[in-house]
Amino acid sequence: MAKKARVKWAGDMTFVGESPSGHAVVMDSGSADGGLDHGIRPMEMLLLGLGGCSSIDVMLMLKKSRQNVTDAWVELDGERADEPPKYFTKIHMHFVVVGHNIDPRHVERAIKLSKEKYCSASVQLGALAEITSDFEIRDA
After folding, report:
1. Where are the domains of the chain?
2. What is the pTM of this model?
3. Given this chain, do its domains 1-40 and 42-139 carry the same CATH topology?
4. What's the CA gap between 91 and 125, in Å, rounded?
5. Between 1.10.760, 2.60.40, 2.20.25, 3.40.50, what CATH number should domain 1-40 receive?
6. Cβ atoms 99, 70 nearer than 8 A
7. pLDDT tens digit string along 47-80?
């Protein structure tokens, strides 16, 4: 039987999320909701999940295309609806790829394939949010 994800109350408005793969993360609400800033907010986790999912895809594709990447990250900006449920309406992803002789065509293709085909998080969040992206390449 597959292990399930679990979120367990840890007092106040703090919760510990346990993933099916055995990892844990602390989540908390903001002070306006009684939180004590002991952990990441759940909606922030959604943004990080999108960034992680896309970053893994992009790096796998850049490695397969033999790009000499020495560092990489993605910066995410999300806009949320004004009224509950305050879901993401727009998300922008800015990828930064650092390395030697990086071909921008490979970076552009990797980001596009991740967004449209491979990243489950972008497909899921894209059902309600407009997801845009751009990138820059920096020499190492």
Report:
1. 1-40, 42-139
2. 0.93
3. no
4. 9
5. 2.20.25
6. yes
7. 999 999 999 999 999 999 999 999 999 999 999 9
Cis peptide before 42 (omega within 30 of 0): no
Q: Which pLDDT tens digit goes with each residue over 3-15?
A: 899 999 999 999 9
* Whole-number percent of the chain with pLDDT over 70: 99
* Residue found by looking up tokens 């759940």 in the block: 42
Q: What is the predicted pLDDT for the residue at 38?
A: 94
The correct answer on CATH 3.40.50.2000 for the domain covering 42-139 is no
6, 18 Cβ separation under 8 angstroms? yes
